Amino acid sequence: MTAFIDAFSAYLTPQVTERIGSATGIDPKLVRRGLGIIGPLVVAVAARAARSPGGLQGLLNLVPAGFDPAAGGIETVVRSARDPRASARLLSGVFGSGVSAIGNTLTRTLGVDATALLRIGTPLMLGAIAHRIAEGGIEESAIARQLHDEQRAFQARGD
Fold this sequence. Notes:
The protein is mainly α. It has 9 helices and no strands.
């Protein structure tokens, strides 16, 4: 089951990837590819955070309350991604000191500066997780298990 990654992918319609591409100057195909890497990466971070009491909630608290990627949240994230300082706290809160290495690796993989995609994809994936949790009324232990299972399934596919 890949509920979180699937929920995230559902937001990435051709219109959304075109909009993100237009805002970042990145080809929409590379936008989709980059976000296809970032989403599972954030799921892995969330799965690790869920291992400690309150860890997942602390991570999700980095996203504004009520943030919903499907309800105009994408435009909000695209606007805030233009200012690296606006998303620096979120990215360092999610990835810690590894955020630069992640951005550099993603940039090498895609062949374009992908830091804007990291600033867009991270809050979108966290928002997808938070939204799915809110609508599902799932208890924390079940969420942690589902995140771990999804991370393992993604890795097993070799994507």
